[in-house]
Write a sequence for this structure.
């Protein structure tokens, strides 16, 4: 009953899919013909993609060079992804009906479906209703073109075809699946894995997971979420290591080719030049939250936690230099949060009794972090597509700053601040509470959007 | 600017899955409260309410619809064989001539009760015994009423031609062994076949009385009869859960006396809906809509008698699908803001909005509103499945088919394809939660979408990847929302026609609906009494207003009542989910609490039993009359002989145990296998004492006989050694069923007794166990050894001995364990060869055939090859592939070129 962690194809499913898409293509062609829609415009412009197509030979050479370079780097010991070439998807013959169908649609990387939220894409209501005559004409046309391929199809495929074209759906999930021992084994293990995770039996789940990912063909990228959960319950540090491993091994900087038929949705499983893989963001979030919590715990061995935190920040600062992280608002947001946490901790540790240069250094540290937070947030919002509570963060940042000047008169400090940065500190502590302070909102928002 | 409380991608919302907790927001530390900084996450770990505490009520109450018998599909054949059996017996005619037990009703009673679900069969109140009535045996007069035909979907003609009887339909129903090979089709238009909802009639409104919960369900041979019944509101949330429901249905068994309103719609019902009215209106609807094969019926409930719960109703003129267009309707929905308005969509995506006449008068028709018609027809969408729902406001509609969701505004004349699911996933179901939220089920995720009127469009808020089989097209969603303190919990349940498990995941939102979070962890519930799958499921309405104020949720006991319908039979079943402790521990023995078997057994247990029972009855019938009157020896003699033979045989076996290897089957031999068991004795006490003595005697030798107590406890819920008592209990049951109860019971008793009495020596088990354990390969034996261990203990061990275990497991993977990853070299040579000679490879190694070399294949081998050296030293061994690194490196270098050239077949999974 669960999704198997591998791609299954069998001859039967392939043929039945082929029949189905051939029919669908026939239908839509006829439909377009009837309605006078020209065919050329339905295809999406795919600039990235056509670029790769034209320079295919060059690409091969480049890849070779890149591989050699990577090999050298790996020998030096630099952690570097070697799997980019795996992202190369096989390309089937051009006259493939299925491909023809999918070529028409944009393949989203962030979600399984394409979500349209732009009101500008609205169209007037389609008033033309389909009637039986027209439908019949289309269907007859579709079927006529199918005669030869149907004649050679097996009976099962024919039944499948007729059932789907009649609007029925198939009920049997195992339809067309090869009935081998290994698939059964994988199926059983997958079910056990899921069930034990749901029942919170982590030891058993761990065993299943460990067995499962060793089976050839099983892709750990479809299971990493479960693995992370299991490890997080057993040994929290291990789960971070696992995620780190995932993101270093399965990261790629290649663009996502839109005209290729992928078997696996990239949503939770892959990254590309424009898409940060989910395991990387999860890794960053988990690191941030765990290290931040460690940072707060002053009694504990806070040194290593602080070191961890610092190394996380260093890592992110490196990551945001290149794609895909460079353009991912979420990574920028995480980076900003790092600084915010840091500013919070430092401003709390700030000793108001300090004087002279020591005081300046301490307060400058905090202000540096606050400024970094702001600039990273700005980066984040400039990338677009990411929402976060701006006013709330701005208010918190102002509160951090206010801590530095503690009980001293707020007005003096305001001036001093304005030289450093554009933020205003709140005149009272009510700035902590999101609802109360309206003037503050506008100011800080303005400062953010600069 | 949308200023949500949690950071998230804008059109995407939060995407969560197991292990993916999504983005978070830092809540800084506050000095004055002394609070340290914390985090607000999309995945809420500590809710006041823990989903994991929910358990399923121990027994599902089966609400049989009396007019439809619960019969397995293949019972007909069983009856045939039964009948043949009788025909064969020579004495049949004489003896059975005045025997009336083979009329249809008897058969049903027998079959029904032979399921052993309840010991005391519920006798319908209209039950009567036709003593002395001479039944004509001519099969011509065999009525087929209540015959075992389960309701079937309509199958179009072109399909029928393809499907030969033996091939698909029949074979599937008969549960052939190669079930996986068969295609199973279903009509996606068939939606909820029952619904429970609130009804407030005009009279209720006038008298200012509350709404009543009405359940509407379909019944009858062809699912064409609609039944309506009132569920008494004051009993809905009682802790004893289900008893009253059963009583209600028992009371209503008889159509004449009961309060079920029964309406024959003369076409099979596809969907039933009760209008879900917006809370703004402050009232409930009084109309039930029913979609049948060819028309849409609306039943207006005029009055519900508060005393007798009698429902009086009137019907609108049915809306024929021909009056709308050329295609049958696929779905309809009531306008939540206007009770008289509804919208329909047909199977090709044509939609329209119509209005019910205010009063039901002859000649008043349902009218389609002019200009409020349109189409979302897509030539590429083949499935008939369509959904229509009202969106956030009066004028906005959502129309959904398997590959897209279109939002349209009928007043401002625009439409927008909000969701386009052509590539990775398909839409499976949509449920409206309230005016602001909806739940969309796709083949990959559950998505809570916001339909807030403030937003421009429908947008994703939060999603949960459910990991259920994406090819299962029967996945449907059922939701229930309930207030928990200051939060509103939304439970989403996914069920399928393919299995009996329900996947439950929770979401919650706060009162001002800004913060939407996922609740800790999904759970999986196994529905009892379901053989094939669940066709519809509904929660009983929850009284929200009263509980919203109750802030103290920590100890809140929840009882979530829901009804569900099995798709193989026509039964409606009731069950409940609770986080309360289930009372009555004794009864829990009878539930199989952890029946979450991962692999569904091919044959549902019940079918197997029925076969056995049927065979048994047949046999009994034959032997009962065959036996001539032979002179019977006195009991003492019989038992003496028997006892002697038995002890001889046992001694023999025990000796053989000592001497030689035994195999598993011989570990607990049946007594009845050893010698002929006596059948003609009279005194049961004699037998009892004989067996007692026997067990006493052998106990000293370390040999244990099966204790009869356990069996009696299982069967009659009483621990007794007394055969007489047991016998009389059995007799009670059979007495209702057959006049020959004495002999049948005797037979039953004998076969029960002799089929359970075994003996064993416990020492033998240890031997066998160690033997088996040793025969296992390493990873499996390790798994087995952890299988039953106490978890807490296990965790303790794990953390302390962690290093040790890893160290020890490392070499095992290195040297010759069976499950080791194949080395690069071998997989390479195989895959390249496969390219050239696909046929020869298929025959030569079946093990590798299912895997066309996929990218995973490559990537995993690549990792093992070149990534080994790159892994951090701290990496857990579970993710690094164990092999000696040096040879791998060179191999992978050599093997990269041929692999890269390989072309694979594309397409979507």
């Amino acid at each position: 009953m669960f999704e198997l962690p591998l791609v299954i194809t069998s001859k039967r499913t392939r043929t039945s899919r082929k029949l189905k898409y051939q029919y669908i293509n026939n239908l839509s062609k006829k439909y377009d013909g009837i309605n006078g829609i020209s065919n050329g415009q339905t295809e999406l412009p795919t600039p990235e993609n056509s670029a790769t197509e034209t320079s295919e030979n060059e690409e091969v050479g480049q890849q070779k060079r890149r591989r050699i370079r990577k090999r050298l780097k790996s020998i030096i010991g630099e952690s570097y992804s070697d799997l980019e070439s795996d992202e190369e998807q096989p390309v089937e013959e051009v006259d493939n009906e299925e491909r023809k169908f999918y070529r028409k649609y944009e393949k989203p990387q962030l979600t399984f479906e394409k979500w349209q939220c732009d009101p500008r894409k609205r169209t007037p209501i389609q008033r033309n209703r389909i009637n039986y005559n027209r439908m019949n004409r289309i269907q007859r046309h579709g079927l006529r073109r199918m005669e030869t391929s149907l004649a050679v199809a097996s009976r099962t495929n024919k039944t499948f075809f007729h059932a789907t074209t009649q609007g029925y759906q198939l009920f049997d999930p195992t339809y067309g699946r090869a009935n081998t021992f290994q698939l059964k084994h994988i199926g059983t293990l997958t079910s056990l894995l899921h069930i034990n995770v749901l029942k919170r039996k982590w030891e058993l789940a761990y065993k299943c997971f460990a067995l499962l990912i060793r089976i050839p063909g099983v892709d750990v990228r479809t299971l990493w979420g479960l693995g992370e959960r299991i490890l997080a319950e057993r040994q929290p540090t291990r789960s971070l290591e696992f995620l780190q491993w995932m993101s270093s091994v399965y990261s790629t900087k290649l663009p996502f080719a839109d005209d290729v038929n992928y078997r696996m949705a990239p949503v939770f499983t892959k990254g590309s030049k424009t898409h940060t893989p989910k395991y990387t963001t999860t890794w960053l979030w988990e690191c941030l939250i765990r290290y931040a919590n460690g940072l707060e715990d002053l009694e504990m061995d806070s040194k290593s936690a602080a070191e961890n935190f610092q190394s996380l920040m260093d890592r992110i600062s490196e990551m945001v230099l290149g794609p895909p992280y460079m353009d991912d608002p979420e990574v920028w947001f995480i980076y900003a949060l790092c600084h915010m946490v840091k500013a919070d901790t430092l401003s709390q540790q700030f000793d108001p009794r300090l004087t002279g240069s020591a005081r300046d250094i301490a307060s400058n540290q905090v202000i540096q972090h606050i400024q970094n937070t702001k600039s990273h947030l700005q980066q984040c919002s400039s990338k677009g597509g990411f929402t976060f509570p701006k006013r709330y963060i701005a208010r918190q940042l102002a509160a951090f700053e206010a801590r530095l000047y503690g009980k001293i008169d707020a007005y003096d400090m305001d001036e001093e601040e304005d030289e450093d940065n554009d933020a205003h500190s709140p005149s009272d502590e009510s700035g902590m509470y999101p609802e109360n302070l309206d003037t503050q909102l506008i100011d800080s928002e303005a400062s953010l959007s600069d | 600017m949308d200023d949500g409380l949690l950071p998230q991608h804008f059109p995407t919302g939060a995407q969560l899955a197991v292990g993916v907790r999504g983005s978070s927001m830092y809540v800084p530390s506050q000095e004055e409260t002394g609070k340290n900084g914390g985090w607000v996450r999309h995945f809420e770990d500590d809710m006041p309410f823990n989903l994991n505490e929910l358990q399923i009520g121990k027994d599902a109450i089966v609400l049989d619809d009396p007019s439809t018998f619960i019969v397995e599909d293949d019972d007909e054949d069983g009856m045939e064989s039964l009948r043949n059996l009788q025909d064969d017996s020579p004495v049949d005619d004489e003896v059975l001539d005045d025997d009336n037990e083979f009329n249809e009703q008897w058969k049903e009673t027998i079959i029904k009760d032979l399921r052993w679900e309840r010991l005391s069969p519920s006798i319908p109140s209209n039950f009567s015994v036709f003593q002395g009535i001479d039944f004509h045996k001519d099969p011509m007069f065999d009525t087929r009423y209540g015959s075992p035909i389960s309701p079937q979907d309509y199958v179009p003609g072109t399909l029928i031609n393809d499907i030969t009887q033996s091939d698909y339909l029949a074979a599937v129903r008969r549960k052939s062994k190669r079930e996986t090979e068969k295609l199973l089709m279903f009509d996606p238009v068939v939606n909820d076949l029952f619904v429970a909802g609130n009804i407030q009639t005009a009279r209720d409104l006038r008298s200012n009385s509350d709404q009543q919960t009405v359940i509407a369900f379909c019944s009858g041979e062809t699912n064409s009869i609609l039944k309506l019944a009132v569920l008494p509101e004051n009993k809905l949330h009682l802790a004893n859960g289900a008893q009253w429901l059963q009583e209600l249905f028992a009371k209503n068994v008889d159509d004449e006396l009961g309060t079920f309103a029964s309406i024959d719609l003369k076409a099979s019902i596809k969907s039933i809906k009760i209008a879900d009215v917006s809370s703004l209106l402050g009232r409930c609807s009084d109309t039930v809509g029913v979609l049948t094969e060819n028309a849409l019926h609306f039943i207006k409930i005029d009055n519900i008698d508060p005393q007798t719960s009698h429902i009086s109703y009137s019907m609108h003129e049915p809306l024929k699908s021909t009056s709308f267009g050329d295609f049958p309707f696929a779905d309809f929905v009531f306008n939540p803001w206007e009770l008289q308005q509804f919208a329909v969509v047909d199977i090709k995506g044509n939609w329209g909005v119509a209005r019910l006449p205010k009063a039901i008068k002859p000649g008043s028709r349902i009218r389609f509103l002019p200009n409020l018609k349109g189409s979302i027809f897509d030539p590429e969408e083949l499935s008939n499945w369509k959904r229509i729902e009202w969106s956030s406001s009066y004028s906005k509609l959502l129309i959904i088919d398997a590959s897209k969701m279109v939002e349209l505004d009928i007043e401002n004349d625009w439409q927008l394809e909000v969701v386009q699911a052509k590539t990775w996933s398909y839409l499976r179901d949509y449920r409206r939660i309230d005016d602001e939220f909806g739940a969309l089920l796709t083949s990959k995720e559950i998505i809570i979408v916001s339909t807030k009127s403030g937003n421009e469009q429908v947008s994703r808020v939060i999603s949960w990847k459910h990991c259920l089989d994406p090819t299962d097209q029967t996945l449907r969603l059922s939701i229930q929302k309930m207030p928990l303190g200051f939060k509103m919990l939304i439970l989403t349940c996914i069920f399928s026609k393919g299995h009996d498990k329900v996947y439950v995941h929770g979401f919650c939102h706060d009162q001002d609906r800004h913060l939407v979070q996922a609740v800790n962890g999904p759970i999986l519930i196994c529905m009892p009494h379901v053989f094939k799958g669940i066709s519809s499921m509904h929660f009983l309405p929850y009284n929200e207003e009263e509980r919203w104020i109750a802030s103290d949720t920590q100890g809140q006991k929840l009882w979530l009542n829901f009804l569900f319908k099995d798709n193989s039979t026509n039964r409606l079943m009731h069950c409940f989910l609770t986080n309360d402790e289930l009372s009555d521990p004794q009864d829990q023995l009878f539930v199989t609490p952890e029946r979450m078997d991962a692999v569904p057994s091919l044959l549902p247990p019940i079918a197997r039993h029925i076969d056995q029972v049927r065979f048994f009855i047949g046999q009994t019938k034959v032997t009962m009359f065959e036996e001539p009157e032979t002179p019977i020896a006195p009991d003492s003699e019989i038992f003496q002989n028997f006892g002697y033979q038995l002890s001889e045989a046992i001694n023999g076996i025990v000796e053989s145990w000592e001497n030689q290897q035994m195999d598993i089957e011989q570990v607990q031999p049946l007594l009845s296998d050893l010698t002929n068991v006596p059948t003609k004795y009279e005194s049961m006490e004699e037998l009892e004492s004989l067996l007692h003595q026997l067990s006493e005697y052998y106990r000293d030798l370390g040999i244990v006989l099966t204790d009869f107590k356990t069996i009696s406890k299982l069967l009659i819920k009483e621990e007794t050694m007394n055969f007489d008592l047991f016998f009389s209990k059995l007799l009670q049951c059979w007495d209702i069923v057959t006049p020959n109860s004495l002999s049948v019971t005797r037979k039953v008793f004998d076969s029960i007794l002799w089929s359970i009495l075994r003996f064993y020596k416990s020492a033998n088990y240890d031997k066998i166990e160690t033997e088996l354990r040793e025969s296992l390969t390493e990873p499996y034996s390790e798994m087995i050894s952890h299988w039953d261990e106490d978890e807490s203990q296990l965790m303790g061990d794990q953390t302390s001995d962690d290093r040790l275990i890893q160290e020890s497991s490392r070499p095992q993977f290195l040297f010759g364990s069976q499950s080791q990853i194949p080395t690069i070299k071998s997989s390479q040579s195989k895959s390249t060869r496969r390219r050239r000679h696909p046929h020869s490879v298929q025959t030569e190694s079946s093990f590798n055939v299912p895997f066309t070399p996929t990218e995973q294949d490559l990537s995993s081998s690549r990792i093992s090859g070149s990534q080994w050296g790159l892994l951090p030293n701290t990496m857990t061994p579970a993710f690094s592939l164990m092999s000696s690194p040096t040879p791998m490196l060179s191999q992978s270098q050599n093997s990269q070129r041929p692999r890269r050239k390989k072309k694979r077949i594309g397409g979507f999974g």
Observations:
- Strands of chain A lie at 114-115, 169-170, 386-387.
- The longest helix of chain A spans residues 356-383.
- Confidence is low (pLDDT under 50) at residues 39-56, 78-94, 408-450 of chain A.
- Chain A touches chain B through 181 residues (CB under 8 Å).
